[in-house]
Structure formats: structure tokens, C-alpha cells
Amino acid sequence: MKEALTQSAFFGVVLSLICYEIGLWCKEKLKIAIANPLLIAVLLIVAILLLFNIDYDSYNEGASYISMLLTPATVSLAIPLYRQLSLLKKYPGAIFGGIAAGVVTAMVSIFLLSFAFGLNHQQYVTLLPKSITTAIGMGVSDKMGGIVTITVVSICITGILGNICAETVCKIFKIEEPIAKGLAIGTGAHAMGTAKAMEMGEVEGAMSSLSIVVAGIMTVVSVSLFANLI
Amino acid sequence: MKYVKQFAVILSISLIAELMEYLIPIPVAASIYGLVLMLIGLITKLIPLEKVEGAADFLVEIMPILFIPSTVGIMASADALKEMLIPLCVICVVTTILIMAVTGKVSQGIIRRGAGRSRNMRGSRK
Question: What is the pLDDT of residues A28-38, one digit of tens each?
């Protein structure tokens, strides 16, 4: 019975979808940033697999059909970016200047802290893409020889943190312009931060979602310069 | 049938992107090539927005679900995670706040400098 169930290609897919639905439900009910649907779904699935002694490979046999859509989904990120192109043309200096400063800050600070903690090359490149959207970050980590799953975990933690502390950070550092707020949140905390930016206002939301892709692409370029420092 | 065509366009770009990943000897993932190709296609109007919009919006919307299988793979790297858990948490907290502050400050500076300059120009014209 268990064999027949777990050997079906639908097992992994169905389990993933149901757990994500539960995650969405929790998010609706709890309305706190830590109740992130992706995080809840992953924890649930890991618990279920461990509880019933099902190994990752038999889950992933079916679930990998879901992962297959990741490349076309990342390609599709071009569509929201294209829609915001008019914004990009309106404030090119603030957008490119601000995001570039953020990306360089990310690279330098991650390098310095990794060095201080004595991390090895693999651990260091695992963390380098931690502030960008998962779709792009996974590819960066994989290409540089990082541990992709840990990259995803660090991206999740970053997103949740960014979502929680975005307003406080803007207040402390006196970031008052809506455009600057949006850019800061999108560059620092990708899509999960953007959810917060959208609550703050339309301009903040648009700027934040624009920063996701721009920061992602800038990071791809700069990671290749920083990856071999450790 | 509309969606079939839209998916065909997006998947074709993904296919070309994977070919580029194989042929170009720099460490860039296929999805990035695809993203840039799609953006160029849209800007040059080679790919009209309405020919990809529906399927693309669907894929972007379900994106978090697509990360589930690989993240569950954390089961296999639990030891590696334990080894770097403290640095990971510290780095996440410190850099996230730092990146937000720097990005916000720099872009705000650029916006306000621009605004100041245009005010001055208006002033000198008077």
C-alpha cells in the first residue's frame, strides 16, 4: 500500500500542492510574516517524509516535475519587468544607482562576514545570493558550487526578516521617499519583502518588484567577481 | 488554444536558454539567459506582450510552489546546515538591514539631488 502510494509520480506533486494550500491557509489565518506558505509547506513535507520513513528520492521522483517549471517561470519574470519599464526610464539614476549600491553592499558584507566566520568556499558561495529572488539565487548557487538547498533557506530567512523589519529600517535610517523605500525593500528582501512594500503603497510596491529582477541580474554579474575571494 | 501557444513561446525560449548555458563557458544559469532573451524579445516587439502574458502571469504566480521540491532537499543537507547555522543567521540579519539602508539612502540621495537641481533651475529662470 505504502509502496504503491509513494511510487506513483503523483505522490510528490499532490503532497507538495496540499502542503502549500495548508501554508496559504495558515498565512490567511495568522497574518504574520513568519507564516510563510513556502516555509510551512517545506516543514510539513519534511515532517511527513520523516514520520512515514519515506526517502527524499521517492518524493522527488514525482515532485521534480514541479521543479521542471522553474526555468520557464524565471523566464516569465521578464513580463512584470517589461510592464515596469516606463518607471525604469523615468528614474534611471535612482534605480540603477540605488540597486547597484545595494548589490555591492551585499557582496562586500557577505564576503567580510564569511571571512570573519572562517567559512569555506562552498559555504561562502552558498550565502552570496541570499538577498535575491529564489529563482535566480538557486541558479547562482548551483553554478558556483554552493549548496542550493541552504541557499534557498537563507533566501527564505532574508525575505521573512526583510518583511518584518522593513518599516523599522526605513524609519531608523530616515528613508522617506516612496521610491527609495521600494528600492530598498526589493533589493534587500526580494519577493517576500515586496509583499510588505505593496502594503505600504503603490509606488513602493512597483519599485520593489522592479528591484527584484534588476538586483537579481546585477548579482549574477557581480557574484562572478566575488566568488573566488574565499 | 491560446495558452498552448503562449507556453510554446516560453518553453522555446527556455530551450534556447539551456542550449546557451551549454555552449557559453561562463557560470550563468539557463534561466538568466532566458529572462534576458525574453526581455529583449518584448522590448524589440519581436514577442508581443499579449502572446505570452497569460501563461507568464500564471507561472510567476505559482512560483513559490516550484521551490518546494528542492527546498525539501534540505533533509539531505541537514548536517551541512547545522555546521553553518550561526554564521548563516548572523549574515542574514546583518546584511539584510545593511543592504536596505544603503540602497534606500543612495537612491533617496540621488532623487533629492535631482529634485534640488530642477528647483534651482526653475529658480534661476525667474
Answer: 998 887 788 88
